[in-house]
């Protein structure tokens, strides 16, 4: 989401190196993320001079759920059931207690993800910039 919103503010394609600088991460991380987005038709890439990543979707039609799916539906919670000691009755009791809570929480989050579009996030970003009296500067966006 973050990468796509930055790309929307930039005229023309952005390289993985450009996006890595803006996102303060390694370009390899950007390429991995973009590969999943490309497979879902959300971005495209062009090689050569003047090439890079471009948006190929309509922000009104793309939800956070779409992005989550495009990224391979990663684990939502860092904390979760463990099965490091199969046969441990304490672990079984804890996991049984938590299963329903984690399932409910994940369903709630995924439902919410399906209701938030990239267009809504972009609008919110622009309203926040206006409220601060700022214009878009990719280097300053991450500063307080």
Automatic annotation (TrEMBL):
<protein>
    <submittedName>
        <fullName>BadM/Rrf2 family transcriptional regulator</fullName>
    </submittedName>
</protein>
<dbReference type="Pfam" id="PF02082">
    <property type="entry name" value="Rrf2"/>
</dbReference>
<dbReference type="InterPro" id="IPR036388">
    <property type="entry name" value="WH-like_DNA-bd_sf"/>
</dbReference>
<dbReference type="GO" id="GO:0003700">
    <property type="term" value="F:DNA-binding transcription factor activity"/>
</dbReference>
<dbReference type="InterPro" id="IPR036390">
    <property type="entry name" value="WH_DNA-bd_sf"/>
</dbReference>
<dbReference type="InterPro" id="IPR000944">
    <property type="entry name" value="Tscrpt_reg_Rrf2"/>
</dbReference>
<dbReference type="GO" id="GO:0005829">
    <property type="term" value="C:cytosol"/>
</dbReference>
């Amino acid at each position: 989401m973050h990468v796509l919103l930055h790309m929307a503010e930039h005229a023309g394609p952005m390289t993985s190196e450009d996006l890595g600088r803006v996102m303060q991460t390694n370009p390899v991380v950007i390429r991995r993320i973009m590969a999943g987005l490309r497979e879902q038709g959300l971005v495209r890439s062009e090689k050569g001079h003047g090439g890079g990543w471009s948006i190929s979707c309509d922000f009104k039609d793309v939800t956070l759920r779409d992005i989550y799916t495009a990224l391979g539906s990663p684990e939502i919670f860092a904390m979760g059931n463990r099965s490091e000691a199969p046969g441990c009755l304490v672990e079984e009791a804890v996991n049984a207690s938590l299963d329903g809570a984690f399932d409910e929480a994940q369903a709630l989050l995924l439902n919410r993800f399906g209701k938030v579009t990239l267009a809504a996030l972009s609008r919110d970003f622009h309203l926040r910039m206006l409220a601060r009296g700022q214009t878009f500067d990719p280097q300053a966006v991450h500063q307080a």
